[in-house]
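Re: duplicated header lines in exported structure tokens

Our pipeline writes sequence and tokens for each protein into one text file. With two proteins the header for the second block appears twice in some exports. Here is an export where it did not happen, for reference. First protein block:
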Amino acid sequence: MSSPFPWLSFAIWIPILFGIYLLAAGRNHRPGGVRAVALAGSLVSFLVTLPVALGFDTERTGLQWTELVPWIPALHAHYALGVDGISLWFVPLTGFITVVAVLAGWKAIESRVAQYYAAFLILSGLMIGVFCATDGLLFYVFFEATLIPMYLIIGVWGGPNRVYAAIKFFLYTLLGSLLMLVALVYLYQASGGSFEIAAWQRLPLALHPQILLFLAFFAAFAVKIPMWPVHTWLPDAHVEAPTAGSVVLAAIMLKLGAYGFLRFSLPIAPDAAHALEIPVIVISLTAVVYIGFVALVQTDMKKLVAYSSIAHMGFVTLGFFVFNPIGMEGAIAQMISHGFVSGAMFLCIGVLYDRLHSRNIADYGGVAHVMPRFAAFMMLFAMANCGLPATSGFVGEFLVILGAVQYQFWIGAIAATTLVLGAAYSLWMYKRVIFGAVSGPKVAKLQDIDTREFLALGVLAAAVLWMGLYPAPVMDALHTSVGGLLSQLAQTKFVPGSP
């Protein structure tokens, strides 16, 4: 369905233009004015994503809200946009999280305020571009461009080791993406000079080039997710990033890699995906179990939640590679839920850090006595992180476990350990920080959340409960597109004896 109005372009370029405005004119505004402009930009950006979600026809197959404009005629590259049921909800999710990120840095950032908010707004537009691009070259440009604002957010406004963390983040993700560029060039040649992703998905590729393409894409997307063992950049990046940077990194940027599997690795190289499904499942289960135990021994709250994100994203890749509708739909639902829950967990840690300037669990205790409203919010998010029924965390995890059991019972049983491990590390942290006697005079002087913080946490709480109690809008949008992807995976491209 071609769009009579370019809603996707508006969703991409409105935050970018607001960001450019802040870069150009931010010095002429006082910090309060900059924050107001940034909030207005994020709200407008979020609002223009709503018609995309509300007007989506869940019964139709193929892309909707499509736009097609010649971009680089010599290369037959197009500014081509569109969404299907798989990509649909990531567009408003990105806009929503950007609003939360703007609120999160309202008081915490006092230097280069205009540049700080400009980086977030530009990053928001670029990430929406990744989810909407249907041209391979355009996807790559958006995908790589997201590195720049996040690199600056970590490197300029981060903690004491911010430069190390920013460089490690940049190098890990860039090196993986270079192999993806090689794969894109190969597909461009194999398709007769086209960058259309849908055309690449129809190519009759032999098994050997499929495996090479799959591994090239895997290098880019596995680092971005990140999967074990290429996950080591993530805890460093989270610890050093400002609160809003951690919120966006966990809630949206990790999903870019998982989304890449659905758009490139699986439909373009289906035979390779089946041939390599066991190694990927083993890596995913390692992330679920081993990284869960690693999270248990963390003393830094940010590191604990960072490792829990790796474990949850291992659940996502497991759902992809069991190759059944329940598992794949559960994995996508888990991606959306993780956007709400992980963002909320990092925001809670930021609330405490802004007051006590410490992330060490041992420095807290008895916070519920002095911050009861905050304690209630954090309890909800900790429970959602465990996968408690009636929260968004339960929907995806339960479906992935069911899909894994359909694939092979013992794989589902191992995956189910995440329910125990998730409860262990989430509730252990919550108990140590929130309950017990007040640990000292600094904790005794803590002030409960203000109106701004209540609003940011409140909208995230509403999202967690909405998806947990009524997941139908998300799941209904997925059925048709996931069914189409699985039918592609069932139709082998490989002919034995072909080169």
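Second protein block, exported in the same file:
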Amino acid sequence: MRVLLFFSTIAASLLFLSLAAAARPAETVAEGVFRFWKPSDGVVAWTSAGVRIRIEPAPCRTPPQTEGCSFDHVNNQPLVTVTAPGQPDYRTLGDSQSSFYRIAVARLQPGDGRPGIVLENQSGGSGGDVREQILLPDGSTYHEQFLPGHLQGELPARLSDLSGDGAVDFVLGDGSFDGAFGCNACTPRPPMVLSFRNGVAIDVSRERAYADVFRRALPDLRDRCFDRHERYRNGSCAAYVATAARLGQVSTAWKAMLHHYNREGIDIWRGCAASVPRGNAGADQRCFRTFPQSLAAFLRKTEYMR
């Protein structure tokens, strides 16, 4: 009798817990706000701007087989299902090499009747490489693409419309500076702004509407370039001049950089292919003797300067 009573109590408890779970309201995330997810979280679902997002580890039988499948029996790669009112479910896979992900539902273009999806794939590394996977509304489905360029860092916790055109903008770090001037972790990345125009994501950093992004970044970069106690400051000087160039202040920044860069530094961009003397295949192919020479060539190559 006591055994039956014990099991009856357990059954009643389980029923109560399942009813409580069913009554619990579904998680809601504000439009434009990122929701964090990692594979060990398992299946997670929430609603944002009327769109339901479900994310879960992809089955390990889904190629490619990831390290997570081999060691933890949980796929690193996420399977995302998007459910929007009146639309068929849309499913997509995220990156197979990232360690964690963030998803936001946001208006990606002015006048869009329904929002799109931003899936941030974070692979990390010393420069913080990131891939921004975009689901752009297209009729009754989505058109999928990635933000272009070598991007680093991460998007802010909440996406915002910086230009006032009714669509969010994306501010990340310019990954072309990755490893260009010696110590990679010592080189800050200048901001890079991207936005959608006619269904295509483009670099809009030069547009006047985004000047405040570069104005806010400039003081810290200038201070780091001017810090004579920082041995590896030349990477900061490179980012400082590049950021000033976006504001039309390259001449002033260049003159200041000449007074403060580390003349003893070996952090010179090696982006020039020198001719190697015959019989000396191991020769150093560095084409520049000074940091300012290499910086000028690098900023012209990356189109910060002409």
